[in-house]
């Protein structure tokens, strides 16, 4: 099969796995799984090749199918999806790209899922000082057409040390700064899917460029990279 498409057979396998999420069924069908896994990994690598035409990717991580059930109430042993994360290369390139393939629930995401406390404070301080560039990107019509609204967990009130009446407190309260885009199964199975994925990832670059600038400088605009 082409490395640039997701096959219906792979989605069908994931549907069957969701209905038979146990070790006995998986062991019986492990060879079939390995085939679909190889096909999907080839697709992710094709996406990475596209990304490297307009960005620089340091690493692709395709996540294992096995679930860590030690601290979960859900004891099903397998993930009924494939997922991969593309890490950007270099200290000056911040943010990352995520893509999950799951029947009826495929989505892509980009941004900052779990910023460390130093990065989170730096972002908040920037937004407190001047959020105009940030808002300009979020409100750009072409950007919104692809990615919609800013998402992610946020505090219910102002973070410690910030004015709850600040005009940009809606942004400052955020703990995550992410965007997501959902795809139907029909879109996933189309020959154009890889183009849609690549186009969407290209569209996030103005956001990544701004956030990278923020996270690699201090409030005076001086570089923090040695």
From TrEMBL:
InterPro entries: CHP02453, UCP028451
Domain of life: Bacteria
Any matching Pfam family: DUF2461
Protein name (Swiss-Prot/TrEMBL): DUF2461 domain-containing protein
Provenance organism: Croceitalea marina
Classification of source organism: Bacteria, Pseudomonadati, Bacteroidota, Flavobacteriia, Flavobacteriales
């Amino acid at each position: 099969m082409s490395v640039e498409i997701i096959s219906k057979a792979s989605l069908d396998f994931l549907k069957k796995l969701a209905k038979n999420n146990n070790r006995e069924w998986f062991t019986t069908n492990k060879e079939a799984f390995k085939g679909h896994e190889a096909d999907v990994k080839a697709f992710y690598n094709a996406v990475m090749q596209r990304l490297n035409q307009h960005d620089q990717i340091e690493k692709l991580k395709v996540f294992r199918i096995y679930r860590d059930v030690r601290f979960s109430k859900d004891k099903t042993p397998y993930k009924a999806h494939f997922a991969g994360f593309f890490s950007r290369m270099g200290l000056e390139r911040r943010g990352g790209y995520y893509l999950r393939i799951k029947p009826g629930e495929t989505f892509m995401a980009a941004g900052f899922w779990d910023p460390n406390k130093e990065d989170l404070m730096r972002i908040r301080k920037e937004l407190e000082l001047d959020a105009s560039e940030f808002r300009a990107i979020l409100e750009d019509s072409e950007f919104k057409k692809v990615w919609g609204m800013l998402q992610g967990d946020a505090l219910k009130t102002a973070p410690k040390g910030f004015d709850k009446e600040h005009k940009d407190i809606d942004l400052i309260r955020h703990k995550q700064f992410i965007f997501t885009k959902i795809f139907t199964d029909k879109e996933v199975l189309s020959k154009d899917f890889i183009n849609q994925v690549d186009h969407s990832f290209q569209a996030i670059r103005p956001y990544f460029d701004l956030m990278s600038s923020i996270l690699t400088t201090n409030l005076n605009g001086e570089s923090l990279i040695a």
